[in-house]
Amino acid sequence: MIAFNSSPRILERVAALPRYATATAAPSAEMVYLASNESPFEPLPSVRQAVIAGSARLNRYPEMHSGALRGVLAERLGVAPDRVVVGTGSAGILQQVFAAFAQEGDSVVYPWRSFEAYPILIGASGATGVAVPLGARGELDLAGMRAAIDTSTKAVLLCLPNNPTGTIPSRSEVAEFVAAVPGHVLVVIDEAYLEFVGPGSGVDALRLLTRHDNVCVVRTFSKAYGLAGLRIGYAVSSSRIADALRRVFLPFGVTALAQAAACASLDARSELDARVDAIVRERERVSLALRGHGWPVPESHANFVWLAVPETAEAVGEALRDRGVIARVFPGDGVRLTIGTPEMNDHALAALTEMRER
Ligand code: PMP
């Protein structure tokens, strides 16, 4: 019998997925929006020009696998082009990773608190996410993550530096960790904030790739490159893993405009490097000032700072909003403040200073 008032059954695991929480208030011209770790800078004129030029061919599909961009990336990174995969932001790449490597009955080990899309994307693949809590200073618990790997584990995720705490383990700790993971377990290294990591603190993930076939490095044009609105990121891995990622790619999932903007950004390296330097300088200024006012702020290696205020996170977020600043609140954990222009940061600093002086 056909039941006419029934409706399609939503998979239990889909109904159980956490929702991706964007900022609670819509950004408006009056508010200082520091909640999404975006670049505060407008696109470079050369990047805009490339997008406008690309718009002349919007009636055509884009290059399916971003061949031109992959060529440039491969050359820069010193790897063969077939080891580079371009996707719909690094979130899109992560979705491809789990679609290709995890399913029901499998588990994926990831740090928590970390990028909130991890449990969503793992859960959507059907696999079980195994969250390993951060250490007391907001650092990845690499020993705990190692201990969480069992026979069902298909992948383990590292977020370097970790969003939202900004911490990064040392190069040797990461090398040791990767060497200890069994070869059949994929090690996903999410380097969304790589460009903001100081020269002495990098983990050299690409070098790990030369030694370990099970590593997949994920990067994005959303943060340092300022292309968050265009949705483009990439992965570097063995050609075998890269091929699997391409098989599950949404057909034509990266627009021609995004590909053109990414190519133009790679051509504008010195201008973008100067912008990254400016953000890093501001990050240090803001961190020092906040600590000076008694805020617990761990050393950050990204384009945001972390206020480790688990008990008062919501109240701090609320008070910032009352003073015109939108930060990202993680109830029970803390508040993450993206680094913006000096003016935006001054606004946030004034608000946080006032809160301490009340
Ligand atoms: N990884 C991390 C650690 C992130 O913080 C983010 C964005 N917040 C992403 C991946 C996804 O970025 P995108 O999809 O824009 O590349």
Automatic annotation (TrEMBL):
* Keywords from the UniProt entry: Amino-acid biosynthesis, Aminotransferase, Histidine biosynthesis, Pyridoxal phosphate, Transferase
Carrying N6-(pyridoxal phosphate)lysine, the residues are K223
Q: What class of enzyme is it?
A: transferase
Known catalytic reactions: L-histidinol phosphate + 2-oxoglutarate = 3-(imidazol-4-yl)-2-oxopropyl phosphate + L-glutamate
Instruction: Name the domain of life.
Output: Bacteria
Respond yes or no to whether keyword Cell membrane is given for this record. Answer: no
PANTHER family, per the entry: HISTIDINOL-PHOSPHATE AMINOTRANSFERASE, HISTIDINOL-PHOSPHATE AMINOTRANSFERASE 2
- Hey, which family's this protein in? Belongs to the class-II pyridoxal-phosphate-dependent aminotransferase family. Histidinol-phosphate aminotransferase subfamily.
What is the name of this protein? Histidinol-phosphate aminotransferase
Q: What organism is listed for this UniProt entry? A: Streptosporangium fragile
